[in-house]
Amino acid sequence: MLIVTDAARKQLAKNLGESSAEAIKIALQKSGCSGYKYYIDFCDKVDEKVVVIEETPVKIVAEPDILPYLESVTLDYIQDGINRMFKFQNPEAKAECGCGESFLL
């Protein structure tokens, strides 16, 4: 299942605390030249449509159909100078586009 680093967990908790949402949602969409892209969104209501991946310190959810795409994936939060971003690392990806935005399984 999804591995969340301490740095990512801390930033997700901060982002969630600044919103009115109930949880952070990890999602997947078709994108880029390689096929798919992970993204992070707010989940206003946690219901039977989502699966809770992590409960504390921040509730993280995903739709059931993307769970296979989260196996062995690590979510990290990287700070490099003034640049800050969430980074998904999927060791099972067969290909990634040059900019690293999308991947192919």
Can you give me a brief rundown of this structure?
The chain is mainly beta.
Could you describe the 3D structure shown?
The structure is a single chain. The chain has 105 residues and is mainly beta. The protein has a single domain (3-92), classed as Hypothetical Protein Aq_1857, Chain: A (Sandwich). The protein has one helix spanning 6-17; strands at residues 3-4, 23-31, 35-43, 51-54, 60-62, 74-80, 83-89, 95-96, 103-104. It has a 4-stranded mixed beta sheet with strand order 3-2-5-4, with no helix packed on it. Strands 1-6-7 form a 3-stranded mixed beta sheet. The radius of gyration is 14 Å and the shape is globular. The two termini are 16 Å apart. The mean pLDDT is 87.
Radius of gyration, whole Å: 14 Å
Shape: globular
What is the beta-strand fraction? Answer: 35-45%
CATH names the topology as Hypothetical Protein Aq_1857, Chain: A
**Structural class of the helix and strand makeup?**
mainly beta
In total, how many beta strands? 9
Low-confidence stretches: none
Helix content: 10-25%
Order of helices and strands: EHEEEEEEEE
What is the assigned CATH homologous superfamily? Answer: HesB-like domain
**Average pLDDT for all residues:** 87
CATH architecture heading: Sandwich
Largest sheet: 4 strands, mixed
Q: State the end-to-end CA separation.
A: 16 Å
**What's the helix count?**
1
CATH class: Mainly Beta
Q: How many domains, in number, for the residues?
A: 1
Question: Could you give the order of strands across the largest sheet?
Answer: 3-2-5-4
Domain Core: 2-101
Pfam families: Fe-S_biosyn (PF01521)
GO cellular component, one term: cytoplasm
Family: Belongs to the HesB/IscA family.
